[in-house]
Sequence to fold (282 residues):
Amino acid sequence: MSGCEWVVDAHGCEAAALASLDKLGRLFASLQTGLGLHPVRETLWHQFPAGIQGSPGGITGLSLLAESHLTCHTFPEHGSLCLNLFCCRYRPDWDFETYLKAEFGAARVRVRRLERPYQGEDEPQERALSQLRSADRVPLV
Amino acid sequence: MSGCEWVVDAHGCEAAALASLDKLGRLFASLQTGLGLHPVRETLWHQFPAGIQGSPGGITGLSLLAESHLTCHTFPEHGSLCLNLFCCRYRPDWDFETYLKAEFGAARVRVRRLERPYQGEDEPQERALSQLRSADRVPLV
Fold:
């Protein structure tokens, strides 16, 4: 059986949105609701101090999920956001690009999708199921 | 400026080690000490219930760092461990393979290294420095 990790980097975002705990909380909630994710702890949020050039402080969020984890880091001084979503159980793709453009003003969004196989090579019984599942991954719109 | 993420998947590990909070705590401490990482919160640990076939419950750990984050998930029923280390500031490579083989009995360790560029394309002044830094990355032994 294989998990999946989405590695998302957004650039050209609005600094104020990247420094907004409300905006980031809604991003996490949208992902959790949209993909049926189950937090098992309160999300850990931390806002770093403002930059020396007056830019607002970046925010880190870590959510411990029954399905693995969801994290983000924002860099308002660079207009960027880095997000990871690791699901050890099947979930379809999510439309990160549309959301981040609409809610954070992102100019560019790069999404990489990594397989995270956690079943050993001597446990092949799940492989066919995993392949079947991978065939019906579709972007959410 | 570019961050870096190490994506590490270990297979063939000992189930008891993967279910040990002590072992995983020492892994995190070794990484934090060895790479000069600075947790800004207590690490969040969660142990899942034992599996239906009597295998011990897997563990998730999330550490919020000044340098970004460190996470792990273990699957004792599959003998596997999935780890992420995201550093938004330069750190050298770490010898995950030797550590996971010695402490968790891993048979195979795969390490992927992803660039996480958080500086926009219109901020080129750090690029040369980043390239210089990438030249001196060496494994820790």
